[in-house]
Amino acid sequence: MSRSQHAERQAEKRNRPPTQQFRVYAVLAVNNFQRFARTEAFSGILLILCAVAATLWANSSAGDAYQNLIHRYFSIGFGDFLLSKSLIHWINDGLMVIFFFVVGLEIKRELLIGELSSPRKALLPAVTAIGGMLVPAAIYIAFNSNGEGAGGWGIPMATDIAFALGILMLAGKNVPMSLKVFLTALAIVDDLGAVLVIAFFYTADVQTAYLYNGLALYGAMILLNVAGMRVTIIYSALGIVLWFLFLKSGVHATIAGVLLAFVIPAEKTLNYRQFYTELGNLTRYFGETFKLSDAQTAAAGRQARMLLLEEIYAAVHRVHSPLERLEHGLKPWTAYLILPIFALANGGVTFGSDLWASLSHPVFWGIFLGLFIGKQVGVFGFGWLAIRLRWASMPTGVSWLMLYGVSILGGIGFTMSLFISELGLPPALQQVSKLGIMAATFLAAVTGFILTKRGVALIPDDPDADLTPKELLEELKELERVAPART
Fold first, then answer.
1. CA distance 274 to 283
2. Coil, strand or helix at 477
3. Contacts for 129 with CB less than 8 Å, ≥ 6 apart
4. Is 0.85 surpassed by the pTM of this model?
């Protein structure tokens, strides 16, 4: 079905009586907000609001209370299993493990069936991501080759995937799907690079006994995967032990989250065609139960419907792999709870009398120029070179202006940059680092949004273009509703 046919059907909906339209619009207003609250755009806006709230709180008369809260110590456990950490460390070393676990699930999915599943599809995102890591790091090192800020070279290498996608979604519904896929794949390769940087360059003194126990446990989890274990609660329980061992070993605990993701089974036990056949049979049996007339068989029919519902649920469960179930189940929690909490705890930039000193500090300029200039030069420059040399092709429907706009959006470091900042820089430079990250993120978000939206606006409307998957689904549902009325 083409867009022109879809537009005609939407016009029919608008030709309803005024009173009916008023009721429909009232319901739609609520439903549209609920749908928007589930999009990447809303998660990006939520991160901005939390960062702004943290900065206002840190610079208000309650600023001391903010600092006291995030540095207040909490203890969990007993004896040798006692962990005592400040609130900000519980967030960064505990809650963020779940975020990195979801990142690991996304990386594994893309490597198996997504944009990174074949060399041809993965080449452009991989090349641009490498450029987007090397150039920013080089710019930072040029400003901070030695001194106490030298360890922060990994800060401008990162891209906040949720934030960047959120800004891209704000550019409108006409953003090509291929551009969204490209930015997602780029950010996932970027995340993989950030994980490796954390693992190899931002690891403290290693306690080998804990590390060896952790690796032995991970080996056992690999064997469980090979043996066909698909019960996610077992992996979750072992994952908590793995997190504890890595935390005590000195290797950053978030690495445990990524490693855990790679042993989660990704195979389905029921493919889509088998699911279609099985679901069709079950729903037909379900309908037959309503044809029972006498009281005794009607009671048995109600029990049969409950059993059939359980079988339908089991079929839905089997058509999704454990990896898919965990990713879809945890992603809203990370987007709407964990990352906002992280932004509140880590985004509080204080503006004191030393603001000018912060703005003139080489760490500020290394981060700011690395994220805003280095990212666009690295991503766009390496992408342009790969396309010109015919190593890769431009994503379908994407112009050079849109690619450049997305390259600038890659400079939205935020979550990952703040996270690496906590690992790579001493406490005295944290405020300088946050200021550079926030300034670059804001400028990259605004500039990238404007250029991407401009590029999208220049795309001529194609009434015969294929519908997006979401539009096609809405059209199929509408046809299903209209069909009974016409008959």
1. 14
2. helix
3. 186, 187, 189, 190, 193, 379
4. no
